[in-house]
Give the backbone structure.
Amino acid sequence: MTFKAMDLFAGAGGLGLGLQWAGWDVIAANEFEPVFAESYRINHPHTDVICGDVLSPEVQERLFSYAGKVDLIAGGPPCQGFSTVGKKDEDDPRNRLFYTFLDVVRIVKPRVVLFENVSGFKRMYEGRAYERLVGLLEAEGYTTSHSILDALDFGVPQSRLRTFVVGLAGSQPFSFPEPSHLKGVGLFGGEQQLTLQDALSDLPIIHSGEIAVRYAAAPANSFQQRMRAGAGEILTEHEGPHHGDKLLHMISHVPKGGSIQDIPEELRPRSYFANTYARLWWDRPAPTITRNLGTPSSSRCIHPFADRGLSTREGARLQSFPDSYRFSGTRSEKNLQIGNAVPPLLGEAMGQAVAQSLCSRPSAVNA
């Protein structure tokens, strides 16, 4: 049986791709940013990608037209307005997206709701956003469960913590997926967590400003094989970020695993954070990838062997986007899409767990 999904606040489609890998038919998606929506459309040609403001009547009309047609609504709306003090958070205009997400749920009535956010979501704003989300979902007939998952535990070569709140129609709670990749493989089996070497060793080592269009080697493991499936022989998006001579001289002083503290004081900028101008480890997983993955002055992102930030392709690999995935826009826009995404392999794990739950549940939400 193929389940159908709607992807809201969809970005470039990381979660949507994961759901697709898990066997879901993502029939509709909404994204506000045109460049991001174009990336989604390129890679998901059979999805009705609705580009526009989810608050607009035109977009809502199209989303509401899927009432009774989808089993899942997924998304991670912002909820900054819950930082205000007081009981009427629903009046804060910054929370309109949060409540509109729930309006779509209320009208479309999926069998399951998948909400994702930062790892500290439950504690944010003294718990107001979490409590409101759970309260409104339960009022619509959903039983809610929440967990914090690390993408590293599900085959992504990067530590990335995300909170997931799942609302299922009926009274039985949701069972979150068990980790498939372990820090140390022992008596209980499982696969080893992936390192940068596992993720990137088949890509050529390039320097600042250099471009490579050929792979350096055959796939060395199952992760690389999966990332290269369908990509052909031409390597794309593997261009070393362009850095000036001053920056190159600075970061040349950073050893393996080093940071700004290893750069001579006379070369350092006037202000900086402790984890900036920091080099990655080849034999460890990556830390959380951000939109600034090619910028050494951001959090740790200098290549283990080359004096440069990460290429767009390296960032995509560390998020588990396959090499065949195409991103629209400028390099900075592509990196933003990658840095903001739910890693597809994490989305796949969640999609599989949700599908397994749906197979044993009633088919409708209580009206």
The radius of gyration is 21 Å. The mean pLDDT is 93. The beta strands are 4-8, 25-31, 48-51, 72-75, 112-118, 142-150, 161-169, 181-182, 191-192. The first helix runs from residue 14 to 21.
